[in-house]
Amino acid sequence: MYHKFLPPKTPDRCGALKWPSYVLVSDRVVFPDGVRPGAVFIEGSRIVDVSEEVTVDSTAHPHVMNFKHAVISPGVIDVHIHLNEPGRVEWEAGITNGTMAAAVGGVTTVIDMPLNSDPVTTDVRQLEAKKKLAKAKAFTNIGFWAGLVPGNAANHTLLSELLAGGALGFKSFMCNSGINDFPAVEAEHIAAALPFLKSRGVPFFVHAEVVTPVEMDAVGSADPTHYTTYLATRPPKFERDAVRLLVKLLDEDSTPAAPGFSVHVAHLADGEEALEVIRDAQSRGHPLTVETCAHYLTFSAEDVPAGHTQYKCAPPLREASHRNRLISAVRSGAISLVSSDHSPAPPALKETESGNFLRAWGGISGVQYLLPATWTALWGAAAGGEGQGEGAAKEGDLLLLARVLSEGPAKLAGVAESKGRLAPGYDADLVIWEPETRANTSVSLNLHTHKLSPYTDVPLYGKVLGTIVGGELTALFGNINRRSCGKLVLSRNT
C-alpha cells in the first residue's frame, strides 16, 4: 500500500537509503541515445557516471540495486499542476499530498501553476510564501510559474522581480480562469509583455481559448448531465481563435527572442485546425511550443458517461478523431511534451451528486497517472490500436516517452542542463518502472486528497516500482518516504 512509509535510515539522509553513494543496474536503461543494459552511478544528489557495463566492481561500489528487466528512465517532469496552496488546501491538501501522489507515479519534479492558490502568484511576496511552504512540504522537486494578468503585464519591473525570485516563467489565461483574482488577458496585455518575455528568454504559458457567445438555444434545453451538452459550449473554434491570435502577436512583435523564450500553448485538445496553425507557425520559425495532457490522449468525448463530472476539464475532452491526431502529433514531435494539468477539487465543486456538467468545476485529478496514461496511449498507438502494445516495449517508444515526459519539459522550464536525462553531472532524478505491467489504478492506492478521477480502475500499463528524487529514495514498491526530500527549482534569472 502507498500509505505505508519507508523509514529514514540515518539522521543525515532524507530518503530511505542510508548510503551516500550507490549504483542502479538494469537490462533497460534509457540513455539519451538509446535503451541498453547499463548502470547509473549516484553520489549525493547527482549522477556521476553512466555505463553500459552491468557488472559493477563490488569493492569500489558495494551498494548496488539490480532491477533486472525493469526500465530505468529519467524522472518525469510535470510542468502543469495545480497544488492549490496556500489558501485552497481543501482542494488537494496542498503541496504534501500533491507531491506524494506525483512521486508514487514516477514524477520527480512538478511546476506549480500561479492559480488556484489563494492568493494567486502575481507578485514576489506571494511567490516567496509558496517557496517557504514548498521547502518544508515537497516530496518532489518543485518550481513555480508566475501569473501574468492585466494588472502586471506592462509592469516589467514587477515581472523582473518575479524572475529574480525564482519563477521559471509566466502563465496567462485568454478566457475566464474561474478565479476572480486571476483575470484573463487581452491582446493588448500580451503585446505589452512580449518584449520583456522575449528579452529575458523565459516561456510564456497560455491557456489558449478565446471564449465568445455560442448558440445556447439547444444547449439551454439540453440535459446538463449529458457530456455533449457541456462539449457544445466549448467548441474547437475557441482554441483555434486563440492560437491564431497568439501567432498574429508573434508576427507583429520584432523583439529578438533570447534562448529559452517560447509562447507555450497549454493543454491542446483540438487535434485538427489549431494544431495545423501551430505547425505552420513552427515551420515559419516562430518560437511556439505546445503541450497536450495525458487525459486528452486517454479519453474521448464518446467515453464519458452521463453525470460523470470527473471528466470535465477545459478545453474539453473532444471526439476520438481529435485524440488520435493528438497522439500522432506527440509521436511526430509537433507536440513537445505531455503534462497532467492536475486540477482537483472537492466533490461539491465537481457536482458529484447532481452530475451537472455545466455547473461542475473543470479540472481532472491525475498527476499520479501521468506516466502510465501517457505510456499506454503511445504504446498502444505504436501497435496500431489502443491500450497494450504488442510484446516488449520497443526502444523508440521508450525514448519517445523520455522526450515528452522528461527532456521536453526540462527544456521548457529552462532546466535542461541539469534535469531530463540520465547523464553524468545531471541531478539524480529517476523512475524505475515496468512498461509491460499493469499499473494499479484502484481507489485504494490513489494518493490524491479527493479520489474522484477518470483514471480509476482504467487499465493502464507502466507500473512504477521506484522513484528517486535528487538521489533520495522517495518511493519504492508502493511505499512512500516519510520525509519530504524535494528541492526548489528556481529560474536561471534568479
Automatic annotation (TrEMBL):
Domain Amidohydrolase-related: 71-473
EC number(s) per entry: 3.5.2.5
Alphabetical keyword list: Hydrolase, Metal-binding, Zinc
GO terms for MF: allantoinase activity; cobalt ion binding; zinc ion binding
One Gene Ontology cellular component: cytoplasm
Protein name as annotated: allantoinase
Pathway: Nitrogen metabolism; (S)-allantoin degradation; allantoate from (S)-allantoin: step 1/1
InterPro entries: Allantoinase, Amidohydro-rel, DHOase/Allantoinase_Hydrolase, Dihydroorotase_CS, Metal-dep_hydrolase_composite, Metal_Hydrolase
Quaternary state and interactors: Homotetramer.
Name of encoding gene: dal1
Gene3D superfamilies attached to this UniProt entry: Metal-dependent hydrolases (3.20.20.140)
